[in-house]
Amino acid sequence: IFKKLLIPQCFALACVPLRHQREREEESLREITLHLHQTPDIPIALSSWAHTTLMQQGAHLRNSLRGSYRVCSCSAGVRMASDDVLTLAESLAQTRVTEGELSYKGQGLKLDDAASVEQMVKEIQDFGGLRALRLEGNTVGLEAAQTIAKALEKKSDMQCCHWSDMFTGRLRAEIPPALVSLGDALILAGARLQVLDLSDNAFGPDGVKGIEKLLRSSACHSLQELRLNNCGMGIGGGKILAAALTMCHRESSAIGAPLRLKIFIAGRNRLENDGATALAQAFQLIGSLEEVHMPQNGINYPGVTALATAMQHNPQLRVLNLNDNTFTKRGAIAMAQALKHLRSVQVINFGDCLVRSEGASALAETVNEGLSLLKELNLSFGEITEEAALEVARSVRHKEHLEKLDLNGNSLGEEGCEALRELMESMNMADKLGSLSDDEGEPDEDDEEDEDEDDDVEEEEEEEEYGEEEEEEEEEEEEKSELHQYSTPPSAPRTPDVSSFLSFPSPDKLLRLGEKRSTLIQQQVDVLDVSKTAEAFLKIASIYKVEDEEVKSAVLESIDAVLSKAFLSPSFQGLSFVSRLLVMLGLLKSEDKLKPVKVVPGHLQCLEHAVKQSYFPPEHIPVLNAFLIRQNQSLEICSSARDQLKLTLQKLTPES
């Protein structure tokens, strides 16, 4: 439909003399939109979306043609070249230099060839004692990477490579050789790396091959942090990575200085059981891990059990984040047994892992017997019933460092939730309990009796599903995962920071951020990333309380700060934000299989507030309205807030 309608119209527009362009363009866009609305095969939601998109594309086309006209009116080649140089010069002027670090972070540079990195290379060459290079948030082509690599060949002091999100828009075939050239340069320089961050580069298994030589080399014998979040490694990449780490440990041990990796991050990589098991074997050998983050990897109980065994051999482990994998009771019991061997654990995130009641009871026993430094325990969305949830609550009674217990989204029922709140209050720990707003209600007796059978069925189904997906093409870039750093336990409870609030939002944490909370949150959220902005909006909105004026005011103030900054930014993709929001609310199907959040009234109430503000573009309101008027089961539990939002959107929607 769009090929037939949009492309011919755009070509027609491009041929119109500039003085008549705007009139013809708007007329053509109206004709396209009218045709879409009158075509019975096109849903109303698509028609509304198309209308908004076409209007945006029309504006973009106008600007492009006017820009082209201005350039053509003078010496085009000189003008375009000078503009490019000016843009690059302005970006380089923003380069931040701290002690031993050269940073080009987030400058959005498009570095295609040697000429485009000439100034950067000179700065690298002239930088004495270079220890850290930040290239994240730019896009680096193969020739540019090879040129940068040449400059790094003499940088023997290099320790930190912050190279996440630096291949956006590049062909996957370009990325492995680019990584090979950069890795070879570090090896040749005799660097001793401590941090290697390649997160959010969708390079797949071939990308892991691109860093395999580097990971096996002496340059990584000193590696302490390896960050490979959201790289699409898959099972094959996980196995390659595990083999490289194993070889690195063996070779470094042979010379008396074994690899002592402390932080390993590899969320959203579709590692599944085989990839996780291979890495578990490497972890068991390494034995020095302090933080392990592997959320959303499609791991079920065989992989979880392998990881549990490996964790026993890492006595300094402080943070274990396996959120959104599938433990079932067998995996949870295995992990509970492993945790009994550890003494330094501060953060356990098994949220959305389906630990079930029996698994929760096993974990409660472990917590009760040890883990004296525990700060956060997340067992949300695990199909845990009231009795097991109360066991978990009682297990944290004497954890003096506890900051958060998250049991949201389980099967407690109203009475169970109240009993849990009363128990936490009786232990003077009411402020440590997270929200219970997404509780699923008490399960039927038949559900409880069939739990064991369900575990077996689910595990078999998951194994079949993952086996079928093993040879599929790796998914492109996904939203970045939240990673929260934790220090050793202080002598007194710390004041929550913004990242802590956004990781585990609560009214208390928001209020304790103080009067500058909205500014702090605005600074923390990367508003140019529509996924992060949508996620931040939903997290802040989830704690909205109509009856609590102080919390209500703080929430709306924070949301206004984030969204106003986003929508007022020239490069912010407003329609993409709206689409992402609809996906996360379960109103629009996601192509990347993103799991929707559980919708609470606060989400819709805060959205109603936002659409009435001056910063919210009116052209996006028909899109929201088109999706809200459809029947959707996910909004039924918030029918009052939904109806109010629909009414507001209808009032604000301009008539055709």
From TrEMBL:
Predominant subcellular localization, coarse grouping: nucleus
The protein, known as: Ran GTPase-activating protein 1
CDD domains linked to this entry: LRR_RI (cd00116)
Superkingdom in the source lineage: Eukaryota
Listed SUPFAM superfamilies: Ran-GTPase activating protein 1 (RanGAP1), C-terminal domain, RNI-like
Calcium recorded as keyword: no
Pfam families: LRR_6 (PF13516), RanGAP1_C (PF07834)
InterPro entries in alphabetical order: Leu-rich_rpt, LRR_dom_sf, Ran_GTPase_activating_1_C, RanGap, RanGAP1_C_sf
Renumbered residue ranges of the record's region Disordered: 433-501
GO cellular component: cytosol; nucleus; perinuclear region of cytoplasm
Domain called Ran-GTPase activating protein 1 C-terminal: residue spans: 472-650
Family that this chain belongs to: Belongs to the RNA1 family.
Compartments in which it is found: Nucleus
Keyword annotations from UniProtKB, A to Z: GTPase activation, Leucine-rich repeat, Nucleus, Repeat
Biological process (GO), any one: signal transduction
Gene Ontology MF term list: GTPase activator activity; small GTPase binding
Record-linked Gene3D superfamilies: Ran-GTPase activating protein 1, C-terminal domain, Ribonuclease Inhibitor
